[in-house]
Design goal:
single chain; about 290 residues; mainly alpha; three-stranded mixed β-sheet; 10 helices; about 60% helix; globular
Length: about 290
């Protein structure tokens, strides 16, 4: 239970830092959104803390609870939040479009508890139905990334409606740029925790990133077999070096696509993409 409390506390700290940045940027809408999420996390923390406190009171007089394994009745903090809010937490950390499998993996690594990718299958459709029935009723919507060529929904990639349009568009180089960007953001998240005692899923996730970025791992002769701790400064340097090679081209492509989208799509289309028919028609528009 205490590791679940730690995960919620880490998230509250992230939100507080994000609120300060938004306040400095004078982004009142973002401050409000972050404050609302912080309050939800605080309520989840309060509920779990009360459970932990009640459990400690019940076992304090004696130590007989150690004589036999007790049934685990710990409430997973993830169960205290709807799936869409759990996805929002992960996407906020990554700050790039992400597939359900990655969202699930990051959630397990940094937020405790399982978030099955299958739970996200119908989420985007539900979000679009909600938006079309009452546009703007929610502080944010989970929506698909848009392809830079057709401005249509990118298969299997989720974003957050409050992100700038350019951030929600994917082009030919975006997959690699997003991989490197998410590596940096996950390394930052690991730094905010106790790196020496990171949960195994977090260490395994960082190791997979390091394996797929040239120069992100020490020389073979310096590696310890079976050791999953990652050199975060080395990972950052390698990711930043490669990112510098692709960022300009990717940014140009996405910026141009965003300009076209603003002229060709309505408000709903800017969030959820144009229809297949309109995508074919607009492809020929310069």
């Amino acid at each position: 239970m205490h590791e679940h409390l730690d995960a919620l506390e880490a998230r509250m700290q992230q939100l507080q830092q994000a609120m300060r940045r938004a306040q400095l940027a004078r982004d009142s809408d973002e401050v409000k959104r972050l404050r609302d999420e912080l309050r939800r996390i605080q309520r989840a923390w309060d509920a779990l803390f009360e459970q932990a406190e009640d459990g400690e009171d019940a076992t304090a007089p004696t130590d007989t609870s150690r004589s036999a394994p007790a049934q685990d009745t710990t409430t997973d903090p993830s169960a205290l939040l709807p799936a869409r809010e759990q996805v929002h937490q992960v996407l906020t950390m990554l700050a790039v479009p992400a597939a359900p499998k990655l969202i699930s993996t990051v959630h397990e690594a940094f937020f405790a508890g399982a978030l099955a990718p299958s739970r996200l299958t119908s989420l985007r459709r539900d979000e679009e139905r909600s938006y079309r029935s009452a546009p703007g009723a929610r502080p944010y919507y989970l929506c698909p990334a848009l392809t830079s060529d057709l401005l249509s929904p990118a298969r299997g990639l989720l974003t957050v409606s409050t992100w700038p349009l350019e951030q929600r568009i994917v082009g030919p180089l975006s997959a690699r740029v997003h991989f490197l960007t998410s590596a940096l953001n996950i390394a930052d998240a690991a730094d905010r925790l106790d790196h020496d005692h990171l949960p195994l899923p977090a260490r395994q996730l960082l190791a997979r990133y390091a394996q797929n970025i040239p120069g992100a791992q020490p020389p073979v002769q310096q590696r310890t077999p079976g050791h999953t701790t990652v050199d975060l400064p080395l990972l950052r340097r390698a990711a930043e070096d490669e990112l510098a090679l692709h960022t300009d081209s990717d940014t140009t492509n996405r910026t141009e696509a965003a300009d076209r989208a603003r002229h060709q799509l309505d408000e709903a289309g800017l969030l959820f993409g144009g229809s297949f028919q309109s995508a074919r028609r607009l492809r020929s528009v310069p």
